[in-house]
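User: My instructor asked us to take a sequence, write out its structure as tokens, and then describe one feature of it. I'm not sure where to start. Here is the sequence I was given:
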Amino acid sequence: AQAFETWSLGRQMDQRDLLRQTKIPQLWVVGEQDAKFRDLADSATLENPAAALKVIENCGHRVIHERPDALASLIREFLSGL
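Assistant: Let's start with the prediction itself. The structure tokens for your sequence are:
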């Protein structure tokens, strides 16, 4: 319960402007069926050349549980390009 209260979007500061300003490479991964977080990721990566957005097909919000192999593949690909 504490994790939900602490990490809830309603309690977190919006860091998208700060993330847009960084030149550090970023990989944003969202599930295709997670419309809310796809919109957030689109907004955060739209004008940031350092950010890459990848959408995992046939996946909802819990990418790491629903499609761990696809997530691992994207992370490997991203890291190999650094």
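For the description part of your assignment, you could build on this observation: The two ends are 37 Å apart (CA to CA). Try explaining in your own words what that tells you about the chain.
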